[in-house]
Protein backbone atom coordinates (compact mmCIF):
# COMPACT_ATOMS: atom_id res chain seq x y z
CA UNK A 1 0.00 0.00 0.00
CA UNK A 2 1.41 3.35 -1.04
CA UNK A 3 1.56 5.96 1.71
CA UNK A 4 1.29 9.59 0.66
CA UNK A 5 2.17 12.63 2.69
CA UNK A 6 -0.72 14.77 3.88
CA UNK A 7 1.34 17.93 4.04
CA UNK A 8 0.25 20.25 1.23
CA UNK A 9 2.86 20.89 -1.41
CA UNK A 10 3.92 24.39 -2.35
CA UNK A 11 2.43 24.76 -5.79
CA UNK A 12 3.33 27.53 -8.25
CA UNK A 13 -0.15 28.95 -7.65
CA UNK A 14 0.35 29.22 -3.88
CA UNK A 15 3.73 30.88 -4.38
CA UNK A 16 2.18 33.27 -6.89
CA UNK A 17 -0.56 34.21 -4.43
CA UNK A 18 2.07 34.75 -1.76
CA UNK A 19 4.00 37.14 -3.98
CA UNK A 20 0.80 39.00 -4.86
CA UNK A 21 -0.04 39.33 -1.18
CA UNK A 22 3.41 40.73 -0.39
CA UNK A 23 3.28 43.24 -3.23
CA UNK A 24 -0.12 44.51 -2.08
CA UNK A 25 1.06 44.83 1.52
CA UNK A 26 4.03 46.88 0.35
CA UNK A 27 1.83 49.46 -1.39
CA UNK A 28 1.84 52.01 1.48
CA UNK A 29 5.63 51.74 1.67
CA UNK A 30 5.93 52.26 -2.08
CA UNK A 31 3.93 55.48 -1.85
CA UNK A 32 6.43 56.79 0.69
CA UNK A 33 9.64 55.38 -0.76
CA UNK A 34 9.28 56.68 -4.32
CA UNK A 35 9.11 60.41 -3.41
CA UNK A 36 11.74 60.11 -0.67
CA UNK A 37 14.03 58.11 -2.96
CA UNK A 38 13.45 60.79 -5.58
CA UNK A 39 14.55 63.46 -3.10
CA UNK A 40 17.64 61.41 -2.25
CA UNK A 41 18.55 61.07 -5.94
CA UNK A 42 18.26 64.82 -6.47
CA UNK A 43 20.33 65.65 -3.37
CA UNK A 44 23.00 63.10 -4.32
CA UNK A 45 23.37 64.75 -7.71
CA UNK A 46 23.67 68.17 -6.09
CA UNK A 47 26.40 66.78 -3.81
CA UNK A 48 28.44 65.64 -6.80
CA UNK A 49 27.88 61.89 -6.46
CA UNK A 50 27.87 60.12 -9.82
CA UNK A 51 24.59 58.66 -11.10
CA UNK A 52 26.01 55.13 -10.90
CA UNK A 53 27.15 55.48 -7.29
CA UNK A 54 23.84 57.11 -6.38
CA UNK A 55 21.89 54.09 -7.60
CA UNK A 56 24.43 51.60 -6.23
CA UNK A 57 24.04 53.12 -2.78
CA UNK A 58 20.30 52.42 -2.94
CA UNK A 59 21.01 48.87 -4.10
CA UNK A 60 23.80 47.97 -1.69
CA UNK A 61 23.46 50.24 1.34
CA UNK A 62 19.65 50.58 1.19
CA UNK A 63 19.23 52.70 4.32
CA UNK A 64 17.20 55.85 3.75
CA UNK A 65 18.29 58.00 6.70
CA UNK A 66 21.91 56.87 6.41
CA UNK A 67 21.97 57.63 2.70
CA UNK A 68 20.78 61.20 3.29
CA UNK A 69 23.39 61.61 6.03
CA UNK A 70 26.11 60.14 3.82
CA UNK A 71 25.21 62.55 1.03
CA UNK A 72 25.53 65.50 3.41
CA UNK A 73 28.86 64.29 4.76
CA UNK A 74 30.11 63.66 1.24
CA UNK A 75 29.12 67.19 0.26
CA UNK A 76 31.16 68.49 3.22
CA UNK A 77 34.13 66.48 1.88
CA UNK A 78 34.61 64.54 5.11
CA UNK A 79 36.86 61.44 5.19
CA UNK A 80 35.40 58.09 4.19
CA UNK A 81 36.04 56.70 7.68
CA UNK A 82 33.84 59.41 9.19
CA UNK A 83 31.02 58.67 6.75
CA UNK A 84 31.20 54.91 7.39
CA UNK A 85 31.27 55.23 11.19
CA UNK A 86 28.42 57.75 11.19
CA UNK A 87 26.16 55.58 9.05
CA UNK A 88 27.08 52.56 11.20
CA UNK A 89 25.94 54.34 14.36
CA UNK A 90 22.71 55.49 12.70
CA UNK A 91 21.95 51.92 11.60
CA UNK A 92 22.50 50.41 15.04
CA UNK A 93 18.74 50.54 15.52
CA UNK A 94 18.55 47.52 13.21
CA UNK A 95 19.90 45.44 16.10
CA UNK A 96 16.67 46.24 17.93
CA UNK A 97 14.49 45.59 14.88
CA UNK A 98 16.04 42.26 13.97
CA UNK A 99 16.13 40.98 17.56
CA UNK A 100 12.40 41.72 17.91
CA UNK A 101 11.59 39.51 14.90
CA UNK A 102 14.16 36.78 15.64
CA UNK A 103 11.79 34.55 17.69
CA UNK A 104 9.49 34.19 14.68
CA UNK A 105 12.29 33.17 12.30
CA UNK A 106 13.99 30.39 14.25
CA UNK A 107 13.14 27.73 11.66
CA UNK A 108 14.45 29.71 8.69
CA UNK A 109 17.67 28.76 6.96
CA UNK A 110 20.70 31.02 7.36
CA UNK A 111 20.55 32.07 3.71
CA UNK A 112 16.91 33.11 4.15
CA UNK A 113 17.74 35.01 7.33
CA UNK A 114 20.56 36.83 5.54
CA UNK A 115 18.26 37.84 2.68
CA UNK A 116 15.55 38.94 5.11
CA UNK A 117 17.99 40.98 7.22
CA UNK A 118 19.40 42.67 4.13
CA UNK A 119 15.97 43.99 3.12
CA UNK A 120 14.78 44.90 6.63
CA UNK A 121 13.96 48.58 7.10
CA UNK A 122 11.97 50.57 9.64
CA UNK A 123 8.90 50.48 7.42
CA UNK A 124 9.03 46.79 6.50
CA UNK A 125 9.66 46.01 10.18
CA UNK A 126 6.47 47.88 11.12
CA UNK A 127 4.41 45.68 8.80
CA UNK A 128 6.25 42.44 9.64
CA UNK A 129 5.94 42.96 13.39
CA UNK A 130 2.19 43.44 13.06
CA UNK A 131 1.78 40.37 10.85
CA UNK A 132 4.12 38.08 12.79
CA UNK A 133 2.29 38.80 16.04
CA UNK A 134 -0.80 37.23 14.44
CA UNK A 135 0.78 34.52 12.26
CA UNK A 136 4.01 34.05 10.34
CA UNK A 137 3.06 34.71 6.70
CA UNK A 138 4.34 32.56 3.83
CA UNK A 139 7.94 33.23 2.86
CA UNK A 140 6.99 34.36 -0.69
CA UNK A 141 4.76 37.05 0.83
CA UNK A 142 7.53 38.17 3.21
CA UNK A 143 10.18 38.44 0.51
CA UNK A 144 7.76 39.99 -1.99
CA UNK A 145 7.05 42.78 0.48
CA UNK A 146 10.75 43.40 1.11
CA UNK A 147 11.80 43.26 -2.53
CA UNK A 148 8.93 45.49 -3.67
CA UNK A 149 9.90 48.06 -1.06
CA UNK A 150 13.52 48.16 -2.20
CA UNK A 151 12.55 48.27 -5.88
CA UNK A 152 10.41 51.34 -5.20
CA UNK A 153 13.32 52.97 -3.36
CA UNK A 154 15.73 52.24 -6.21
CA UNK A 155 13.22 53.47 -8.82
CA UNK A 156 12.71 56.68 -6.86
CA UNK A 157 16.47 57.16 -6.68
CA UNK A 158 16.82 56.67 -10.42
CA UNK A 159 14.07 59.20 -11.11
CA UNK A 160 15.85 61.66 -8.83
CA UNK A 161 19.10 61.11 -10.73
CA UNK A 162 17.44 61.92 -14.04
CA UNK A 163 15.60 64.94 -12.64
CA UNK A 164 18.51 66.23 -10.56
CA UNK A 165 19.53 68.81 -13.15
CA UNK A 166 15.96 70.05 -13.59
CA UNK A 167 14.99 70.58 -9.94
CA UNK A 168 17.14 73.03 -7.97
CA UNK A 169 15.54 72.25 -4.58
CA UNK A 170 13.13 69.49 -3.49
CA UNK A 171 12.00 71.18 -0.27
CA UNK A 172 9.26 73.35 -1.86
CA UNK A 173 7.61 70.13 -3.10
CA UNK A 174 7.44 68.64 0.40
CA UNK A 175 9.13 65.44 -0.74
CA UNK A 176 11.45 65.49 2.26
CA UNK A 177 8.39 65.03 4.52
CA UNK A 178 7.11 61.91 2.75
CA UNK A 179 9.11 59.53 4.94
CA UNK A 180 7.88 61.22 8.12
CA UNK A 181 4.30 60.95 6.90
CA UNK A 182 4.85 57.26 6.15
CA UNK A 183 6.16 56.65 9.68
CA UNK A 184 3.08 58.34 11.15
CA UNK A 185 0.74 56.22 9.02
CA UNK A 186 2.48 52.98 10.03
CA UNK A 187 2.44 54.02 13.69
CA UNK A 188 -1.31 54.67 13.60
CA UNK A 189 -1.91 51.20 12.15
CA UNK A 190 -0.06 49.62 15.09
CA UNK A 191 -1.92 51.48 17.85
CA UNK A 192 -4.53 49.12 19.32
CA UNK A 193 -4.77 50.21 22.97
CA UNK A 194 -4.65 53.44 24.94
CA UNK A 195 -1.28 52.66 26.47
CA UNK A 196 0.13 52.39 22.92
CA UNK A 197 -0.74 56.07 22.48
CA UNK A 198 0.96 56.93 25.77
CA UNK A 199 4.11 55.01 24.86
CA UNK A 200 4.23 56.54 21.37
CA UNK A 201 3.88 60.08 22.72
CA UNK A 202 6.46 59.56 25.46
CA UNK A 203 8.94 58.01 23.02
CA UNK A 204 8.45 60.83 20.51
CA UNK A 205 8.87 63.53 23.15
CA UNK A 206 11.95 61.78 24.51
CA UNK A 207 13.52 61.49 21.04
CA UNK A 208 12.98 65.20 20.36
CA UNK A 209 14.28 66.12 23.82
CA UNK A 210 17.44 64.06 23.38
CA UNK A 211 17.96 65.66 19.98
CA UNK A 212 17.73 69.11 21.54
CA UNK A 213 20.30 68.05 24.13
CA UNK A 214 22.78 67.26 21.36
CA UNK A 215 22.36 63.48 21.15
CA UNK A 216 22.08 63.69 17.37
CA UNK A 217 23.03 60.14 16.37
CA UNK A 218 21.72 58.26 19.40
CA UNK A 219 18.43 59.99 20.20
CA UNK A 220 16.23 57.54 18.27
CA UNK A 221 18.02 54.44 19.60
CA UNK A 222 17.95 55.59 23.24
CA UNK A 223 14.33 56.76 22.98
CA UNK A 224 13.31 53.45 21.39
CA UNK A 225 14.91 51.37 24.15
CA UNK A 226 13.40 53.51 26.91
CA UNK A 227 10.01 53.64 25.19
CA UNK A 228 9.96 49.87 24.67
CA UNK A 229 10.87 49.33 28.33
CA UNK A 230 8.08 51.64 29.44
CA UNK A 231 5.66 49.86 27.10
CA UNK A 232 6.50 46.38 28.40
CA UNK A 233 6.32 47.53 32.02
CA UNK A 234 3.02 49.31 31.45
CA UNK A 235 1.53 46.30 29.67
CA UNK A 236 2.55 43.95 32.48
CA UNK A 237 1.10 46.34 35.05
CA UNK A 238 -2.20 46.51 33.17
CA UNK A 239 -2.45 42.72 32.78
CA UNK A 240 -1.47 41.91 36.38
CA UNK A 241 -4.99 42.21 37.92
CA UNK A 242 -6.58 40.00 35.25
CA UNK A 243 -3.87 37.34 35.51
CA UNK A 244 -4.07 37.14 39.31
CA UNK A 245 -7.85 36.84 39.41
Automatic annotation (TrEMBL):
<feature type="transmembrane region" description="Helical">
    <location>
        <begin position="170"/>
        <end position="188"/>
    </location>
</feature>
<dbReference type="Pfam" id="PF03591">
    <property type="entry name" value="AzlC"/>
</dbReference>
<feature type="transmembrane region" description="Helical">
    <location>
        <begin position="81"/>
        <end position="105"/>
    </location>
</feature>
<comment type="similarity">
    <text>Belongs to the AzlC family.</text>
</comment>
<keyword id="KW-0813">Transport</keyword>
<dbReference type="InterPro" id="IPR011606">
    <property type="entry name" value="Brnchd-chn_aa_trnsp_permease"/>
</dbReference>
<keyword id="KW-1003">Cell membrane</keyword>
<keyword id="KW-0812">Transmembrane</keyword>
<keyword id="KW-0472">Membrane</keyword>
<feature type="transmembrane region" description="Helical">
    <location>
        <begin position="141"/>
        <end position="164"/>
    </location>
</feature>
<feature type="transmembrane region" description="Helical">
    <location>
        <begin position="22"/>
        <end position="43"/>
    </location>
</feature>
<feature type="transmembrane region" description="Helical">
    <location>
        <begin position="55"/>
        <end position="75"/>
    </location>
</feature>
<feature type="transmembrane region" description="Helical">
    <location>
        <begin position="195"/>
        <end position="214"/>
    </location>
</feature>
<dbReference type="GO" id="GO:0005886">
    <property type="term" value="C:plasma membrane"/>
</dbReference>
<dbReference type="GO" id="GO:1903785">
    <property type="term" value="P:L-valine transmembrane transport"/>
</dbReference>
<protein>
    <submittedName>
        <fullName>Branched-chain amino acid ABC transporter permease</fullName>
    </submittedName>
</protein>
<keyword id="KW-1133">Transmembrane helix</keyword>
